Amino acid sequence: MMAACMADGVTVLSNVAKLVPILNFSPQEPEVIDLARFLTGSGACVEGAGSDTLYIKGKNQLHGSECIVPPDRIEAGTFMLAAAVTRSSISMSPVIPSHVACLIDKLLAAGCKITCAHDTLEVSAVPDDVGHNLQGFDVRTCPFPGFPTDLQPQTMVLLTTCDGSSIVEETVFENRMGHVRELQKLGARIRVCGSTAVICGKEKGSALLSSHLVAKDLRGGVSLVLAGLAAEGVTEISGIAHIDRGYENLDAKLRLLGADIKRLIPLASPL
């Protein structure tokens, strides 16, 4: 899209989103729509934002404009899942609830309590007086506004702590089950067949146990952090450069929430 804004003639981008019959939702990821708005505000000619086809007429020159970057919906979802995994509560702002609507629905079905007010979202997974555990649920990743593939590994961690069996089907990316082997080191009961994983939830008296884990990618890596928060004992995770690529000061933010987490290797200074 950005390159086409300065190219000669009209560029047509097709199949840029998957049309889905969900009312009040655009099939395009919100970040794509926001970029189109920013480019248009800078003098670009972009038509079709929010649909599955974009038409961009190239210009010789663009001009400056202002843009407010929307909140990171994947980071928000990761912290929502962190609260659920640790059976605690969290309040976050700013968050756009409609951008994490699929995750909200799943957490509500599991038994979490969620409240939304403007750009503030609160999640509580604190056990009730009876001690009821969260219930497992099935997940099928899809393009927006479906369940995001970038929250699949973190969600799988939650499902290992819930009651019952759950099924996670990955339909967006291939080979996105690399985190499963690491979770199995903690005692997670997960079986993988192709792009589908079956998670056997928590048994009475069982718990994830600490181990040394290796982060091999961004989202799988952060799922190991969530698993470490739920595991008994000290969990050590290497390969955290993958995590730093997508989460700013993750360890510091988790410490502010009460997590016992320490970075053994100093954070690299930005270039």
UniProtKB/TrEMBL annotation:
A cellular component term from Gene Ontology for this protein is: cytoplasm
Q: Name one GO molecular function term.
A: UDP-N-acetylglucosamine 1-carboxyvinyltransferase activity
Give yes or no: UniProt keyword Cytoplasm: yes
Among SUPFAM superfamilies, the record links this protein to:
EPT/RTPC-like
Q: What is its EC number?
A: 2.5.1.7
Keywords in UniProt for this one?
Cell cycle, Cell division, Cell shape, Cell wall biogenesis/degradation, Cytoplasm, Peptidoglycan synthesis, Transferase
User: What is the main EC category here?
Assistant: transferase
Pathway named in the protein's UniProt entry: Cell wall biogenesis; peptidoglycan biosynthesis
Q: Which reaction does it catalyse?
A: phosphoenolpyruvate + UDP-N-acetyl-alpha-D-glucosamine = UDP-N-acetyl-3-O-(1-carboxyvinyl)-alpha-D-glucosamine + phosphate
> Where does it localize?
Cytoplasm
Enolpyruvate transferase domain mapped to chain residues: 1-253
Q: Name one GO biological process term.
A: regulation of cell shape
List the InterPro entries.
Answer: Enolpyruvate_Tfrase_dom (IPR001986), Enolpyruvate_Tfrase_sf (IPR036968), MurA_subfamily (IPR050068), RNA3'P_cycl/enolpyr_Trfase_a/b (IPR013792)
Record family assignment: Belongs to the EPSP synthase family. MurA subfamily.
Q: Any idea what this protein is called?
A: UDP-N-acetylglucosamine 1-carboxyvinyltransferase
Source organism: Vitis vinifera (Grape)
Encoding gene, per UniProt annotation: murA_0
